[in-house]
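Homework help board

Subject: predicted structure for assignment chain

Our instructor gave us this sequence and asked us to write out the predicted structure in C-alpha cell form, then describe one feature. I got the C-alpha cells but I'm not sure how to describe them. Can anyone check?
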Amino acid sequence: MMLGTVQSGFGYWNVYAWIVFFALAAVLVFYFRSAGRSDYKVGTYQDEIFYGGNPVPKDGDEIAVPASSAYWGFTEALSPFYKLLLSLHTGIASDYVGYLVVTTALISALIVL
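My C-alpha cell output:
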C-alpha cells in the first residue's frame, strides 16, 4: 500500500497532511454550522424574503429586473472590448482556427522567453 509522501516531477504532496487539512476544515465547518441561531423556525416570518421592508408582490414580474439593467455598468465599461470581439466574430471556422494558431504561438513564445 502506497500512502505517505508522493514524489512527482514538480514537488510532493503528503496524503496525511491533506487528510489532516480536510479534517480540520470539516471541524471548522461544523463549528460555524453549530454557531448558527438556535431560535430559527421553519415556516415563520423568518423564512420570508426581505424586500426592502415592503411586502413581497405575489407576481414575480413586478420585481423582475432585466439582466441588461443589472449588468449595465459592466457592459458599458467593457464595451470597447465587446466591440472588438464582435468585429473579430465572422462565423467562418478558418478564422477561428487562425486565432487559435496565433494565440498558441504567442503563448508558446511567452513560455520560451
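Reply (TA_rk): Your C-alpha cells look well-formed. For the description, you could write something like this. The first strand starts at residue 5 and ends at 8. That's the kind of observation they're looking for.
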